[in-house]
Amino acid sequence: xxxxxxxxxxxxxxxxxxxxxxxxxxxxxxxxxxxxxxxxxxxxxxxxxxxxxxxxxxxxxxxxx
Length: 65
Prior knowledge:
Mean pLDDT: 82
Number of helices: 3
Radius of gyration: 17 Å
Order of helices and strands: HHH
Strand content: under 5%
Largest sheet: none
């Protein structure tokens, strides 16, 4: 939907709002995306490279999403 709003030839300013309800699959997806983004930023910046281990629960949480 966002891509359609920003279609070729669009000259007006476009605002896109995502409405995420609490306790839904969409909320879980957003949380998972945020965690993966943070992890990618840590890996790319070299932060906490020495402590690059996950707990069993963290791994399962990432894989469940």
